[in-house]
């Protein structure tokens, strides 16, 4: 059975698979460009763009790391990533994932629009003022990430009242995704918060606002999972972790090998300076955090507002900007390797083209 195309605003995604926006540097030009080329929606992460192409797009470095949000979220780096992705996918729709919790959120949204993003995706918080930053770019579609019908209702009410617009689609992310969760530790394992139990209520809420397309995310792995989400009323799915197992993924080869070598029990939740539980592969970093012998926390990049300039980083024992950047560069000693619950199922690398074919046709 072939899938129905996914419509997000004025943009048609032939294969209703949105590639998750994974930062730092896991989904940049090569991965996103190739996903869009193959008919899905490639998503460029806006996180850590000052690290792109060996930090040549960061105006100022301290201890080899981009200084402050202006350089960590480098406009020049983001522009270059989009330019290079366009060389791969041409005019196919491209999205940009921008964390609501980041410092300089509004500026980065505008940067992404200027860089040529067709769609902006935002999670890590409730983006109630998201449309404010795209007034000059009316063709750009807006897609918030939510975790409940209530969150969708709040966003729709505020957007409609303040901006006279509604989301072009929403991504409903369940608690099996990689990286930060929109749930407490306890909720992550409770039945009522599992994705399969959230889709129908969110689709029902979306129907009240004009049948906003709902994209299901978190633990989606293969065609059977996609079929199951569609049967519940989803219009598409988002998948992040499985795309790490592709040749084109922008992650370092050692990052991919961490997942290939991971066992199911190695993928765990941990505290994060962002204030949400985060899921990744248990590696050497976890042992260092537990013994309080991890790298010094200096808050060079000032990446996310909830961290309060390193206060929360010191509380949990690591700087998330530094550790994700280390993972992107393949540092096995200090890197933080995010993964969804299914990351251990990656056993070898395939091309994006082959993966997309598997997702459409089945294994």
Short description:
34% of the residues lie in helices and 15% in strands. With 363 residues, it is of the alpha/beta class. The protein has a domain at 6-53 and 68-252 and 346-361: Aldolase class I (TIM Barrel, Alpha-Beta Barrel).
Attribute tags:
single chain, 363 residues, alpha/beta, TIM Barrel, 8-stranded parallel β-sheet, 3-stranded antiparallel β-sheet, 14 helices, 15 strands, 34% helix, 15% strand, globular
Describe this structure in words.
- With 363 residues, the chain is α/β, with parallel strands linked by helices.
- The protein has a domain at 6-53 and 68-252 and 346-361: Aldolase class I (TIM Barrel, Alpha-Beta Barrel).
- Helices cover 34% and strands 15% of the residues.
- The chain contains 14 helices and 15 strands.
- An 8-stranded parallel beta sheet has the order 3-13-12-10-9-8-7-4.
- α1 packs parallel to α4 and α4 packs parallel to α5.
- The longest helix is centred in the first third of the chain and has 15 residues, at 75-89.
Mean pLDDT comes to: 93
- Highest CATH level, the class of the domain at 6-53 and 68-252 and 346-361: Alpha Beta
Strand order of the largest sheet: 3-13-12-10-9-8-7-4
Structural class, by secondary structure, is: alpha/beta
Low-confidence parts lasting 5 or more residues at pLDDT below 50?
A: none
Q: How many β-strands, per DSSP?
A: 15
- Tell the overall outline: globular
Helical content (DSSP H or I, runs of 4+): 25-40%
CATH homologous superfamily (4th level) name of the domain at 6-53 and 68-252 and 346-361 = Aldolase class I
- Provide the CATH architecture of the domain at 6-53 and 68-252 and 346-361: Alpha-Beta Barrel
N- and C-termini, Cα separation: 13 Å
Give Rg in angstroms.
Answer: 19 Å
Count of alpha and pi helical runs: 14
Which H/E pattern describes the elements? EEEHEHEEHHEHEEHEEHEHEHHEEHHHH
Q: Major sheet, described briefly?
A: 8 strands, parallel
Strand fraction: 5-15%
CATH topology of the domain at 6-53 and 68-252 and 346-361: TIM Barrel
């Amino acid at each position: 059975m072939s899938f129905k195309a996914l419509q997000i605003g004025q943009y048609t995604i032939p294969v209703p698979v949105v590639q998750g926006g994974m930062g730092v540097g896991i989904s940049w030009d090569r991965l996103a460009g190739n996903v869009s080329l193959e008919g899905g929606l490639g998503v460029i992460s806006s996180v850590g763009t000052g690290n792109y192409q060996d930090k040549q797009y960061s105006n100022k470095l301290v201890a080899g790391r981009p200084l402050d949000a202006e350089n960590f979220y480098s406009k020049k780096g983001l522009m270059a990533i989009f330019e290079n992705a366009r060389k791969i996918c041409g005019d196919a729709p491209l999205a940009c994932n921008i964390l609501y919790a980041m410092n300089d959120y509004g500026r980065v949204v505008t940067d992404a629009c200027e860089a040529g993003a067709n769609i902006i995706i935002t999670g890590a918080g409730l983006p109630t003022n998201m449309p404010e930053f795209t007034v000059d770019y009316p063709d750009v579609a807006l897609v918030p990430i939510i975790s409940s019908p209530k969150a969708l209702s709040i966003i729709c009410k505020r957007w409609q009242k303040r901006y006279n617009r509604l989301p072009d689609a929403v991504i409903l992310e369940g608690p099996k995704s990689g990286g930060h969760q929109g749930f407490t530790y306890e909720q992550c394992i409770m039945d009522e918060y599992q994705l399969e139990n959230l889709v129908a209520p969110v689709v029902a809420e979306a129907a009240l606002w004009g049948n906003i397309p709902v994209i299901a995310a978190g633990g989606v792995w293969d065609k059977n999972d996609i079929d199951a989400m569609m049967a519940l009323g989803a219009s598409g799915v988002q998948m992040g972790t499985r795309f790490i197992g592709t040749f084109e993924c922008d992650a370092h080869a050692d990052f991919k090998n961490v997942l290939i070598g991971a066992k199911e029990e190695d993928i765990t939740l941990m505290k994060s300076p962002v204030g949400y539980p985060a899921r990744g592969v248990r590696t050497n970093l976890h042992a260092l955090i537990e013994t309080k012998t991890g790298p010094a926390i200096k808050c060079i990049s000032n990446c996310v507002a909830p961290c309060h300039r390193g206060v929360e980083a010191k509380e949990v024992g690591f700087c998330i900007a530094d550790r994700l950047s280390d993972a992107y560069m393949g540092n096995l000693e200090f890197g933080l390797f995010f993964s969804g619950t299914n990351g251990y199922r990656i056993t070898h690398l395939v091309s994006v083209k082959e993966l997309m074919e598997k997702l459409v046709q089945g294994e």
